Every structure is written in structure tokens, then in C-alpha cells.
Amino acid sequence: MSKLKKTGIRKFLIFPILIFIIALFTGCGPASSGGEKEAVSLTLWCDDRNMEILRSSLETFREMYKDEAEFDFSYGTESEISCKETVLADPQAAADIYVFADDQFYELWSAGALLEITRNTDEVIEAVGGVDSGAAHAAMKDGKLYAYPETEGNGYFLYYRPSYFSEEDIQSLDNILKTAAANNKKFAMDFSSGWYIYSFFKAAGLDISYDTNTNLASCNWNSTDGKYTGVDVVNAMLKVAAHPGFVSATDGAFLEGVKDGSIIAGVNGPWNADSVKEAWGDDFAAAKLPCCNIKFDQLQMCSFTGYKLVGINAYTKYPEWSMRLAEYLTGEDIQLRRFKEIGECPANVNVAHSEEVQASPVVAALAEQSRYGYTQNVPASFWDASELLGAMIAGLNSDNRDIQEVLDSMVKVVEATSSDE
Fold first, then answer.
1. Are 42 and 322 in contact (CB under 8 A)?
2. Mind listing the pLDDT tens digit for each residue in 302-343?
3. What would the pLDDT profile of 63-90 be if each residue is shown by its tens digit?
4. Fewest Cβ atoms closer than 10 Å to its Cβ: which of 2, 94, 216, 377?
5. What phi and psi values does residue 193 have, to the nearest 5 degrees?
6. How is residue 79 annotated by DSSP?
7. Domain 157-305+373-415 part of CATH 3.40.50.150
8. Cβ atoms 198, 302 nearer than 8 A
9. Which residues, at least 6 apart from 13, have a Cβ–Cβ distance to it below 8 Å?
10. Cα end-to-end distance, the chain, whole Å
């Protein structure tokens, strides 16, 4: 009798031990069925400058999760400037993870091409300064996160050669132009781009905005009341355009002038910092934009601020792995590496506030200018309309067009827009 009881007890004890052993070998392994590692195939797009960082980062990520998945990574070159058009041409065929400029966010979101970020959302938002930060605003819609902020450097500021300018000189555009002309040199700014000429209108209190909920735009660049009118701003810009110390220069022309020595100051962005440093050597400095002269008042020039975002295709077959990878690629370590190797300004606040980053004159200039910077929020029609206005100004209004009529026409085009155009 006692023998049977002992045998029964032994069987009872062995059963949970077996369960524990099975769990020990299966519960800590890959989550996929049968104990096999999950096969994950992901495609990524970024621009040429980030490609080497992407390649090596993917290998590190592969090693980090080698016990959980077998990764098949493929990647291609796609500029963040043109990414929207490529994705929207065929969202289902687009990359699982792609980098894009923040002004493309709404169209990608409205087309259903962005996956909502549901993994570590609070941590991602906090890392870029919290829900009220510009980076978070650029990546969110209706309180939900749809992209990972990667850089905060899509803005512009003043490059200059300190051997020509004093600290007082760079506070005033008038002084910069005067000094440039006196040395038979140029100050450069692209008057053919609405992105840059916005700085004059916003300085005068004139603005443009776009409501993505109603698809309505508002622009008062043609204002005829208030202390500064639209015509006042254009007249101030015409005076700048006619100055012997000024040249309207696109991005490429700006770099050419920097390299051949004809340009000693100019408004441009951080993406050209390495090229400018190489050309100017130790005679390199950066600062916030100067004040411009409108109706004999010195007004602080403003700027658009912008961000590069990493989005996940809503059609990805691997949403969880895509979120894990995108979060890794926009984490502190890689944002710091991106700053060190290609000069990209970090969106992560810990990296941005680090001693190493703060020692950069470009980052310091962007930070100083950010006090007068505003998130880019304009309809697509703004770009062509403002380009025509800027071209007229750069050409010194050679056709003697009525400035108020030109402004009225521009505003009419901008405010007639919708996101469906």
C-alpha cells in the first residue's frame, strides 16, 4: 500500500518538473512557433549622406537580436526631399522604413502611408523634448505619433567670415551688405525661394499658415494695414536685391561663391556646413540671422524650422520589428554618431544638449535662431507662388509690375489651395 502511494507521489512530482524544463528551453527563446527564429525582411530608404551609417547600424541591430530573428535588410537611396512623391506613387511597393522632410508629413499621413507608432510612444516623444516640442508637433496628428524625429537641423542661419565682420556687423543686414560691398565681395541669400524670403515677411509680422483639418490656407503677405504692409516688405527686399554687396544664390551657387572667395557671408542651412568649413578653414563662423531694415526699423529676421522624420510604411508586413528598428536608428547613440560624421543636428534633447554638440558653431547658431524660428506649415501651392514673387524681387521688378497686384495674386493662389491639389 505504501509502495503504491510513493509511486503516485513520484509521478505527481515529475510532471511539473517536466513542464518547467520545457518552459525553460522554450519560453526564453524566439517567440515564433516551433522554437525557430523569425524571418524578417525589411527595406529602408535614406539619402546618400546617411547610407554608410545606415549600413553599419543595421549590422549592429542584426547582432543585437540575432537570437530572435533572421534579418534580410535591403536599402536604397531616396532623398528626403522627394520621398513623398516616391512613396505615394505606390505605397504598397515603398520601403518599410523611410526618411522624409516634415513638410511632407500631412500628405503621407492623409494618404494612409504612415503607421501609427504604438511602441514606447511616450519615451520617443519625451526624448525629443516632450509633447509640446516642435519635433513632436512635426511627427504627430490628433495626439498620435506617426514618425520618429531624426534631426532638428532643417533650418537656416548666417554663415560668415569673422575676418571681415565684427560681432556688431553681423547683427544688421545693412552692415553686412555695406562691408561685403566695401571688399568687393557678396552676401548671398536665395530670393527665388519662399523658404528664405519668409524671413522678411515674418519679421514684419506677416504670416502664412495651413490648417490640415479644413485644408484651408491663410496668408496676409498682401496686407495693406498695420505698421508694416506687404508692399513695405517687398520694397525693403528690392533695396537689398539692388545692393552691390548682394547676390541671390541657390544652394549650389552659394557653395561655388564660398569656394571661389566671392561670397563672405550668406544665409544657408547646416547641410552645407562641412563644405563651408573646408573652404573657409579657421575663418569660419555662424550666427543667428541679422536684423533687416523695413521702413527704417531694424526687425529681427525669422526663419522656418524643420525636421527630418523616420516613418514606417503602413503596409509593412513587420510593424513590430519596423518600430523597434526605427526607434533604434533614431536613438541617442546614432543621432550622436550622425552629428559627428555628417554634421546632422540631433532632435534628441540629450544629444543636442551634450557638451560636444553645443561646441559646434552651427548647432549654436541654430539654437539661437530657433527663438525666431517657426514650424513650416504651408500648402504645396505656396512654393511656386512664392518663387514667382521672389524671382520678381531678385530681378529688381524689371517689368515694373504693381507690387500690390503681385502680392494679391500670390495670396489668391495660396489661399485657393487644398491638400487634394
1. yes
2. 999 889 999 999 999 999 999 999 999 999 999 999 998 988
3. 999 999 999 999 999 988 889 999 999 9
4. 2
5. -115, 125
6. -
7. no
8. yes
9. none
10. 89
Helical spans, DSSP H, in 65-120: 83-89, 105-110
Write the DSSP assignment of 311-357 as a string of letters: EEBTT-S-HHHHHHHHHHHTSHHHHHHHHHHH-PPBSSHHHHTSHHH
Other beta carbons less than 10 A from residue 397's beta carbon: 17
Residue in this structure with the C-alpha cell 522632410, named with its chain if needed: 101
Q: What are phi and psi of 248, to 5 degrees?
A: -80, 120
Identify whether the C-beta of residue 241 lies closer than 8 Å to the C-beta of residue 249. Answer: no
Domain range summary for the chain, segments of one domain joined by +: 39-146+308-346, 157-305+373-415
Angle between helices 194-203 and 230-241 (to 10 degrees): 120
Other C-beta atoms lying within 10 Å of the C-beta of residue 363: 23
**What does the DSSP assignment read for 292-317?**
EEETTEEEE--EEE--EEEEEBTT-S
Could you tell me the fold of the domain covering 39-146+308-346?
D-Maltodextrin-Binding Protein; domain 2 (3.40.190)
Cβ(236)–Cβ(293) below 8 Å: yes
Which of the pair, 387 or 153, is modelled with greater confidence? 387
The residue with cell 502664412 is 208
Cβ-contact 321, 69 below 8 angstroms: yes
> How many Å separate Cα 6 from the centre of its chain?
73
- In the numeric block, which cell numbers belong to residue 306? 524643420
